[in-house]
TrEMBL record:
Transmembrane segments: none annotated. Residues 22-109 form the ORC6 first cyclin-like domain. InterPro entries: ORC6_cyclin_first, ORC6_met/pln. It holds the Pfam family ORC6. Its main location: nucleus. One of its GO terms (biological process) is DNA replication initiation. Signal peptide: none annotated. Keywords: DNA replication, DNA-binding, Nucleus. GO terms for molecular function: DNA binding. GO terms for cellular component: nuclear origin of replication recognition complex. This is ORC6 first cyclin-like domain-containing protein. It is found in: Nucleus.
Amino acid sequence: RSRFAPIPAANPPPAAAAMDMSAIAARLGLSGSRPVVRKAAELRRLCDINFDSSVLGIGEVCKAIICLEIAATKFQVIFDRSEAVRMSGMSEKAYIRSFNALQNGLGVKYATLHFYSAS
């Protein structure tokens, strides 16, 4: 029996990351759009490869939500940004700043299509 606990992996395995993305997409009402979820997972992997988003102050859940928004915009799927901001735990101003930072870091720019709920 080892006295030392195993060191957890810094990045979750791809299956776990995809499962997280699917769960977050379901909470945002995007579970019916598989291309959006797949594109968001691809963008999230690119984020992990290209730069350290923790330096920007963007957590893993917020990064997944922003990647879902970018993917939804690419496929012109209606996205509820107010729900995304609520789920991210950030203020709207911080969320928009993080969204712009990730979008510029990834080099993607799509025409935005947002849906704001009445609540």
